[in-house]
# Entry
Amino acid sequence: MSLEDRLLPPQAKPHASVAKISEAWYVVADAKALAKKPLAVTLLGTPLVLFRTHSGKPGALLDRCPHRNVPLSAGRVEGEHLVCGYHGWQFDRDGGCRDVPGLMGVGGNERSRRATSFPAVESEGWIWVWPSLDVAPTGSPFRFPTLPGYTEARRVVEAPGTLHATLENALDVPHTAFLHGGLFRTAEKRNTVTAVLRRYADRAECEYLGEPRPSGLVGRILSPSGGVVVHFDRFFLPSIAQVEYRIGSETHFMVTSACTPVSDFETRLFALVQFKTRFPGLVLKPLLEPIARRIFAQDRLMLGLQTSTIKRFGGEQFESTDIDLLGPHIWRLMKEAERRPPSEAPRDPSVVEYEKRIELRT
Amino acid sequence: MSLEDRLLPPQAKPHASVAKISEAWYVVADAKALAKKPLAVTLLGTPLVLFRTHSGKPGALLDRCPHRNVPLSAGRVEGEHLVCGYHGWQFDRDGGCRDVPGLMGVGGNERSRRATSFPAVESEGWIWVWPSLDVAPTGSPFRFPTLPGYTEARRVVEAPGTLHATLENALDVPHTAFLHGGLFRTAEKRNTVTAVLRRYADRAECEYLGEPRPSGLVGRILSPSGGVVVHFDRFFLPSIAQVEYRIGSETHFMVTSACTPVSDFETRLFALVQFKTRFPGLVLKPLLEPIARRIFAQDRLMLGLQTSTIKRFGGEQFESTDIDLLGPHIWRLMKEAERRPPSEAPRDPSVVEYEKRIELRT
Amino acid sequence: MSLEDRLLPPQAKPHASVAKISEAWYVVADAKALAKKPLAVTLLGTPLVLFRTHSGKPGALLDRCPHRNVPLSAGRVEGEHLVCGYHGWQFDRDGGCRDVPGLMGVGGNERSRRATSFPAVESEGWIWVWPSLDVAPTGSPFRFPTLPGYTEARRVVEAPGTLHATLENALDVPHTAFLHGGLFRTAEKRNTVTAVLRRYADRAECEYLGEPRPSGLVGRILSPSGGVVVHFDRFFLPSIAQVEYRIGSETHFMVTSACTPVSDFETRLFALVQFKTRFPGLVLKPLLEPIARRIFAQDRLMLGLQTSTIKRFGGEQFESTDIDLLGPHIWRLMKEAERRPPSEAPRDPSVVEYEKRIELRT
# Structure
């Protein structure tokens, strides 16, 4: 079967804020969640079955048996093969058909019986998939920070928003005083700070100068005594959001989220939280966990309301101002990467840097 | 932003029995239901947020923040402004953006940051909205009857039918003997009466001559001793249904329903029931309430079945006879008003009057 | 109303595996299920109301009153007529309008007030409908086998798959070793047998030569001592599936299923199970019933997964091999019957017969 003949799910007319970058590695599962049973996931609207062979290697196939189009995720793993649950056809990690039970005297790897396979690797405790069928992987998956001695936690959460809306939400400061009022910042305390914006060819970051320690619960738990604040929000193409805080000399806090576009309006976040403070991590973790959950529940609610409004109106129509610091840059980088032929270098290699004075509610 | 650029929900191809009259006042809420919290309503398929400022005035905005398109109904009222729950943008009743928290040195009323506003007034205990963005309100909302000394009740109910189907149902006599058999009329007792039909430029009415007191429960409760019956069913453009009964000299009963087209197949009725009888209203109210609820439940069920059949067949195909007295006239008046440029006078100013003999089951 | 003007539910673009054969009799209900109350059913996507008049005759009308388009199935039967529940219009079995309550001095059978009627007969304990409005019935409904002295059971079950997928599933042998592993066959025991395939103009059958008794539960219950196996799987146009087993001289087992295309992806099976064995049927029935239910639950699950995958991908893309014995022939016969003008004889009157060696897991 040629690439042209391969049936894939139909794509709806894309929304203005949806950018689909196919030539990239995306996290599709926590490596621990992929054990003996095949796992159904969706990436960029395409249904995939993930499986781990007995020798431990991860495989990713289109979640549809070429025989009668049932999902292969309803089957099971046998040795190095994934076995369909309907008629027992067997496939290897490359999609080759290795057995058709009952069929006599015919080789088991005929081209038209192949399942469609996608590159899959295990790296840093996550399973990554490269969703392009036309372009082979270039480069390795994103490297998460290595911070020895830090307390760590991994979390997988779902956001009912576009990849762009979810990334912007994760890296946006002003909404925290309103949507999460009191938990992280409050709307009452106002400080004028300087935001330094830098855009590179494959990432963008915002650094805040002169920011006091956030006055909400989280800041007071992480750093009761306060100190000089170093704060960076970072975006890495195609889908990584990173927030870094240093407060004084003892407190360092970092959240790195690999965001995966499940479909146009569903994003899954695979987050690594890393921190050290004056207090033992084991003490702080149970204090921070419910607050983090509450903050994310508020974000999820708002992203869901945004999505349902966009769908109801048949499209989005955003109006940005100077304090939407990273959102428009993320959108521009994503749109450029979407259009770019994969072999070509980014069109915009120079660093863009400028400063803005904003009133930060802390 | 020009009117042409303003994004509104997409409109489906209209059904034959759906007429959308935009240049008119519609009730969108009981005034008592609009207190401190903003209220999400839908009018003619358009999502609106209603709010009441601290000074008491009602406002109606498109339920979408121009910034990131979340519904403004998820926000809150502060003073004279509606505050978005995501980033705290503030809007006045005219849609002007009065604050963007964090943004420095810029006026708060820039044109592209405006929310879309609709005329809203409070009148007769209801909140009314004028859904046209192109034409300013002409005239005042409909005046409900003032009947001093009468017992009154207000009810807000939902009907799963088009505005036309709901109006026709409210003003149709023949179905009451079948759908509501025994409650209001019965299919057994047959009388020949005269129906006088009058159509004006902006309304239509049907008067029944020679009608005996309805023999069902409602008639016997309202007027045990009976008497001469005066019965009018009235429609007023764009969406008012009124049923009036006088039985003998002591009983007078009037239901005026402002029907609001929520969407093509959802109608909300804001009803005022007014009556006087020989007995105290406080005694009759608890007797009539459960019967009225049961009658409306039967109508709602039938309108829902009608709607699902129309949707299933992809359209309606009605066949009327001489005893569909008001329905076809309501449809004609609505279709004329839909087509008419708002500045123009109705095309059909003369009164149409004719009589029909029908067999009324009472 | 001409045929051209008659409103019927819109038809979606057909899927490759969906064949709609209109000129045929289909079972729509167990005759016992059609008593005093009208019954709503769907056939080939068209909503029908079935009713039985007081004289016992079955009627089938389009489930939509021509007056205000409510479903006639919400009404009731009076004498020889079906009465609409909204305004009491009455229809006979031919769709003629026999009463419009309240309307005076007009005949009750005007053309534009007719309901759309479909040919309906009662035969063999089932109600059958002929869904074509353009072509009158040719021939009689399918005759189920008459097997005196056999134990019989009738079952009505729903399958969430196309008619073709459901028929193929019912007549497919290889999947039984995987999907129903242990219940009927097992994947472990392998035998080489000969399948003889015969396709006629209006049916196809597969005979298995040299097949041992299936080793699963069902085979051991039906025939503990085994014996020579005679096994036929048969398809009759448009929608009948039949499985016949003889094991030794004492055991004979036959399932005949009239499959009805409710809509493109919903099929209803009206099955007659007939068997005789060495043991009394009353003893075997309670043993076989839960196993049959479990087998069908597994098939239903798989057909549902197949359907949702096909819908998700916007179409099917099947790849068959030599051991898909009947499926491709069923598809060919259905597609030919769909295209064929009803007056014309089948294009393919000769018998096709060939043999295949397959490895049967028993």
Q: What stands out?
A: Chain C touches chain B at residues 7-10, 47, 63-64, 66-71, 74, 84-88, 100-104, 106, 112-113 (CB under 8 Å). The longest helix of chain C spans residues 281-313. The CA atoms of residues 149 and 276 of chain C lie 8 Å apart. Chain C is about 15% helix and 35% strand.
